[in-house]
Amino acid sequence: MKTAEKIMAAAERRVRAAGYNGFSFRDLAEDVGIKSASVHHHFPTKEALVAKLAAAYTERFMEAVAEAPAGAARIAAYQRAFRASLEADRQMCLCGMLGAESMGLPQPVVLETKRFFERTIEHLSEGLDGDATNARAKAIALLARLEGALILARALGDLSAFDTAVRDLEKSI
Amino acid sequence: MKTAEKIMAAAERRVRAAGYNGFSFRDLAEDVGIKSASVHHHFPTKEALVAKLAAAYTERFMEAVAEAPAGAARIAAYQRAFRASLEADRQMCLCGMLGAESMGLPQPVVLETKRFFERTIEHLSEGLDGDATNARAKAIALLARLEGALILARALGDLSAFDTAVRDLEKSI
DNA sequence: CTCTCCCTACCAGGCGATAGATAGGAGCGA
DNA sequence: TCGCTCCTATCTATCGCCTGGTAGGGAGAG
Fold it and tell me: Which of A14, A77, B13, B49 has its CA 20 to 30 A from that of B97?
């Protein structure tokens, strides 16, 4: 794995654990095994790094759910994608974390975060019944519940709370 | 208003906007109009301040929903309480924010955050139909959707997304 | 005389970011 | 093939600023 990729992976893990202000370039350097000046060589500024991180996360997320057929299967695919966050070290959704913090973040990061939700809302609503407006509303409600489920599971320190929070997710719309 | 209360109010606003690591004692001092050493006089450490903040928030929140009768009215009371966050300067629920960040927070803060969700889950589930286990599951799902709705509204920069996300909240259980 | 509250003046350490040096290759002309 | 240049990645060393937190003093109130 290239150094830049290692830095991205370390940064993603740290943002998802503790947020934008919860890590430093020195933390990343230590994770990767280089010095902080070398991290700046690959990513000049923190805001550029995290904005890139959010964009890459969005691409990866969309790929993970792209092939899910319309209907309940697509909802299930989203549920699985969110649950995977928890399984890997009790992490938040990257953009859920950034969305919560968004009022204290640099604009490029806010913009990428917004794009994540716009894209997921659009893709998820395409797989739902009803007219476009109604399907969009359902998609927003589903995503809200999934993001919130991650928060509750983390706050309660109980991963099963995620499953409880999204029980019968596909029937709730 | 006493100085200590002003500090608490300023801290709450800042945590809800940008999270635990998104503000400093000097920020609070400037908000209140004193020096940072004076903030330390009232609240010796940051973790103690935020832990107290979370406890006070929980009390205030519980009071706001305490009188709601069981059934749909109680769900509506929770919805109103969460919506009030957004109306006041697009803020997160304090404990939703702390819950998201919880993996990077000092233990006393994590503990108070957990208590908020335990208490709201218990109180909300008391007002729902079904046996205790089922009512608890419903309460967790409702709170998840409310917390997530705040995140989406902030990330999208569109307050109406909150209302969309919680549309027919009482019918969804 | 003491207690409360706020002040000035600090401290050690962490922050994002920069400057400049060094080592190792890759490409290329003679 | 030798020697030169350029590029990339990393280093050491440092910058100015901010961080949470502390020490000690002064002013006013009971």
Answer: A77
Q: Residue B173 pLDDT > 80, yes or no?
A: no
> What is the pTM assigned to this prediction?
0.95
Q: Check residue B73 and give its pLDDT.
A: 96
User: What's the residue count for chain B?
Assistant: 173
* CB-defined contacts A:B, below 8 A: 166
d(CA A75, CA B8): 41
Answer yes or no: is pLDDT of A173 > 90. no
Provide, as residue numbers in chain B, all residues whose Cβ is less than 8 Å from the Cβ of A97: 100-101
How do residues B62-117 score in pLDDT, each as one tens digit?
999 999 999 999 999 999 999 999 998 999 999 999 999 999 999 999 999 999 99
> What distance in Å separates the CA atoms of residue A95 and residue A58, rounded to the nearest whole number?
8
Shortest CB distance from B141 goes to which of A96, A100, A145? Answer: A145
CA distance A110 to chain B (A): 7
**CB contact set of B45 (below 8 Å; sequence gap of 6+):** none
**What radius of gyration do chain A's Cα atoms show?**
17
Beta-strand (E) ranges in chain B? none
Distances (CA, A) of B8 to B15, B55, B60, B110: 10, 11, 13, 18
Sign, CA torsion A63/A68/A74/A79? negative
- Token digits for A140? 């927003």
Q: Residue B81's pLDDT is what?
A: 97
| pLDDT greater than 90 at residue A172 | no
User: Of B114, B101, B74, B54, nearest to A14 (Cα)?
Assistant: B101
Please say whether the beta carbons of A109 and A54 come within 8 A. Answer: yes
What does the radius of gyration of chain B's CA atoms come to, in whole angstroms? Answer: 17
Alpha-carbon distance of B56 to B60, in angstroms, equals: 6
CB B161 within 8 A of CB B149: yes
**In chain B, residues 34-73 whose CB comes closer than 8 Å to chain A:** none
**Burial state string for A93-115 with b = 16 or more CB within 10 A and e = fewer than 16:** bbbbbbbbbbbbbeebbbebbbe
pLDDT at A63 over 80: yes
